[in-house]
Amino acid sequence: MQAVTLTLSDEIFAFPTRILHEILEPVPVTRVPRAGSFATGLINVRGTVVPLTDLRVAFGMTSRPPDEHTRMLVLDVPVAGAETTVAVIADRVLDVTELDDAAVGEIPEVGMRWPPEFLSGIARTDQGFVIVPDLARIYAAALSEDSADFSFEKDPSSCV
Amino acid sequence: MTDDDDGAAVFLIEARELQSAIERNLLDLSEAPGDRALIDALFRDIHTLKGSGAMFGHVDLAHFLHGFETAFEALRAPGRTASDALINVALRACDQITALLDDPAAARAGNASLIESLDAALGGGDAASGPHPASAQATPAVAPAEDGWRISFSLGPTALGLGVNVPALLGELKDLAPDAVRIACETGALPGLDALDPACPPFVWTVEIAADLDPARIDEVFLFLRDDLVLEVTSLAEAAAPESVAETPQQTVASAEPRPSELPPADVPAEPAPATASRQRERSTMRVATERLDEIMDRVGELVIAESRLHDLSMALQSPALMAVAEDIRRLTSGMRETTMSIRMLPIGNLFSRFRRLVHDLSDQLAKPIDFVTAGGETELDKTVIELLNDPLVHILRNAADHGIEDGGARAATGKPRQGTITLSATHAGAEVHIRIHDDGRGLDDGQLRAKAIERGLLPANSQVTGPELYRLIFEPGFSTAPAVTELSGRGVGMDVVRSVVQGLRGQIDVDSEPGHGTTVTLRLPLTLAITDGLLVEVGGERYSIPVAAVEECVELPPDLALGAGRSNFLNIRGDLVPFLRLADVFETPGLRPDFQKVVIVAGSHGRIGLVVDRIVANAQTVIKQLSCIHAGLKAFSGATILGDGTVALILDVGHLIALGTAIEDRARKRKGAA
């Protein structure tokens, strides 16, 4: 598959270019109160309000403050059964390359630092190992977490 | 004929409209059984549908309607009135039209029995007295011929104007025997261009079918044109030597029909066919796909945003020339916004008329006579709102008919008229539309509701709540006081649906009830979903929009309350205690609060609450964008909007915040009770 590669906390990730809309320089982010750390904010992408998500949170990596390499990638991801446009923070966008499907290997059972259910494969390239995340799973997990942790309904009195 | 598919699609839309017109007229007829004008209107619609159905190849539909029409003919006899039984069968027949439009193959089977029921409902006499008219009328008095048929026809003066499609007609004839048809057009009678009336070409078409064929099938092709046609069918054997057919060069079907564009306009006769002219006058409206409207709305939304950016810029630059242009653009944009919104507005009456059928059927099913009264059908609402209102209103009406209205005997015993009345009305109230469903039934039973609520743990055991506060509970999921689940209601699902849809539309529901006199449910809905006026406020440098319609007033936060924590969370507004929320706390906003905080008092149908903010920024037009499902769990926000500077601001959901305020009040009351 043709893929865009990027780094998150020194690891290389790849998304299929098929789902990629555009790559933005960082734009102003509106914080969404009590939305947790994964989908912290909203951005304006050409008149559309798009949630900004941080995959580093999903993979338990440490975030770093934005610098001149930080980018926002606008992607189409299936969330709760519907194609949803989301933005993802990248520490740095590297390249658009062709990933050989055969090279996207099985996920090793052991020795993994990352939650295996969030990966759809790992590819070996000349740049090193490239993680292909399972975005649908990641967003589904974020949704279910959302309702458990971030709801205002849970205890209204705790808000005052 | 490249737009055949378009034509078919338009036919389907029109057919559905005609179907609902037929249904509406039938329901009207059930109230005024002898009304000639209604009966005539019914015939007109059925006939139109039959004709256009046949034109677009809906043969089954056309046959069925023909039967429908014929059976109904008896109703035209002077002095005949439509019985309830007849109306009921006719309504079923009306459903059959929809079924035939959806899936002719599957629905076809029902045709015969329905026509029979129609005949029976009209007195049976017609059904018994001979062969079915649809088949009786068709056969021409010509003996079957072994070697084929020669058909020669020319159209009457108004046929083309009425939409007869010659190529389609020829195509149908050709389909009778695809390999053995010869078509020729006699152009001998064609006058010069200056005398030619393109709406009434004097062509004579000759079609030879060299196949053994039931003449009834030929006649079927012309079934719906008979009045406007000179038709001659002879067997080929009888026909004289077919010299004209053999010698005339064949013309292709597609180019045979003269097209207006091929004629110099100046030479078109001064008098166009009257039918065509009147048609054009009627067409002052135009159908537009709803997606295109949505697209325009999106564009206008973006325009509004861009305009406010321009406005900010012109203010900042203070250039008179730029400001003048910005002012012009502002005026144009707001005009554009209003026009676009008005395009999306539809009268709610269309929706109301759908429910007449529902109540009619419910009345039948429950064996309770129910009168259905509607008012304010001309009230306009955003089309999206209207579409979404269908389900909630169905549930409320079912409840009213099933639980609200008592049966005739019980009503008579309490001195009410035997016939119950359900009133559905719509009115404008400021930026809201109120839709009211009133029944004059038994009303809600406070005691029973309370007992049920306590049983389900929704209320404490010693609760004494009454009135609207108690009635609100009927919208809880699974809450039903019906002793038994019936086919219609009692599962406690319906009202939950009502609540979620209305909340989704940023609306509110009020329930009022008077024991013995009935129940009124009021849905209060915003006029439009797409754009509202918002009050922009700032908390810790972050901006939020509050719908202006909900804002009652803005006051200064008294200094003694400024520090907050541990103190009372109530504000004294002219003697009334109003609970308030510090948005900075609710939203976990970092940073210190300024010295003079403001309180925005917002009100809904269930109370009011003060929202403490750092600063009130401005009034701004707000184009509402839905939050993605990722943030849909956050009930405090009803959406987001894009501000003039291009950043995103969240829109507060006032209803939810007021619910939080109610919770504060309850807690304070409990604390007071405990002390």
TrEMBL record, chain A:
Any GO CC annotation of this UniProt entry: cytosol
PANTHER family for this protein: CHEMOTAXIS PROTEIN CHEW, CHEMOTAXIS SENSOR HISTIDINE KINASE-RELATED
Protein name: Purine-binding chemotaxis protein CheW
Occurrences of domain CheW-like (ranges): 1-144
Superkingdom, taxonomy of origin: Bacteria
Originating species: Rhodovulum visakhapatnamense
A Pfam family of this chain: CheW
Gene Ontology biological-process annotations: chemotaxis; signal transduction
TrEMBL record, chain B:
Catalytic activity: ATP + protein L-histidine = ADP + protein N-phospho-L-histidine
GO molecular function: ATP binding; phosphorelay sensor kinase activity
SUPFAM superfamilies: ATPase domain of HSP90 chaperone/DNA topoisomerase II/histidine kinase, CheW-like, Histidine-containing phosphotransfer domain, HPT domain, Homodimeric domain of signal transducing histidine kinase
Superkingdom, natural source: Bacteria
Assigned keywords, A-Z: ATP-binding, Chemotaxis, Kinase, Nucleotide-binding, Phosphoprotein, Transferase, Two-component regulatory system
Biased composition (Low complexity): 268-277
The protein's Enzyme Commission number: 2.7.13.3
Domain HPt, residue spans: 1-104
Disordered, as annotated region: 240-284
Location of the CheW-like domain: 531-663
Enzyme class: transferase
Listed InterPro entries: Bact_Chemotaxis_CheA, CheA-like_dim, CheA-like_homodim_sf, CheW-like_dom_sf, CheW-lke_dom, HATPase_C_sf, HATPase_dom, His_kinase_dom
Residues where Phosphohistidine is found: 47
Histidine kinase domain ranges (all copies): 325-529
One of the Pfam families matching this protein, by short name: Hpt
Biological processes, Gene Ontology terms: chemotaxis
GO CC, alphabetical: cytoplasm
Gene3D superfamilies, per the entry: Histidine kinase CheA-like, homodimeric domain, Histidine kinase-like ATPase, C-terminal domain, HPT domain, SH3 Domains
Function: Involved in the transmission of sensory signals from the chemoreceptors to the flagellar motors. CheA is autophosphorylated; it can transfer its phosphate group to either CheB or CheY.
Protein name: Chemotaxis protein CheA
Natural source organism: Rhodovulum visakhapatnamense
